[in-house]
Amino acid sequence: MRFIFKTSYEQDLTLFGDRVQRNWYVALLVGLLGLPWLLPAYLTDLSLVLIYGLCGLSLMVLAGYTGLVSLGHAAFLGIGAYAHVYFVQDVGLPWIVAVALATALTAAAGVLVGSPALRMTGVYLTIATLAFALVIQEVFTRWDRVTHGLKGRPVDKPVIFGVSFATDAAFYFLCLGFLIGGLWLTRNLLRAPTGRAWVAIRDSEIAAQSMGVNLAVYKTMAFSYSAGLMGLAGALFAHKIGFLAPDIFGVLFSIQFLLMVVVGGLGSLHGAVFGAVFVALLPVVISQARDSVPAWIGAVVSVLGSGAGTAAFRTTDRLVKQPGLEPGIFGLILVLFILFEPLGIYGRWVKLKVYFSTFPLYKRATFKRQRAYMRSERLR
Amino acid sequence: MTFFRAEGLRINFGGVQALDDVSFEVAPGQVFTIIGPNGAGKTTIFNLVSRIYEPSHGRLVFCDEDITQVPPHEIARRGIARTFQNIELFEHATVLQNLLLGRHAHARSRFLAELLFLPRVRAREIAHREAAEKVIEFLELQPYRDRLIANLPYGIRKVVELARALCTEPKLLLLDEPSSGLSVEETEDMAFWIQDIRSLLDITVLMVEHDMSLVSAVSDRVLALNYGRTIAQGTAREVQEQPDVVKAYLGG
Question: What is this structure's pTM?
Answer without folding.
Answer: 0.88
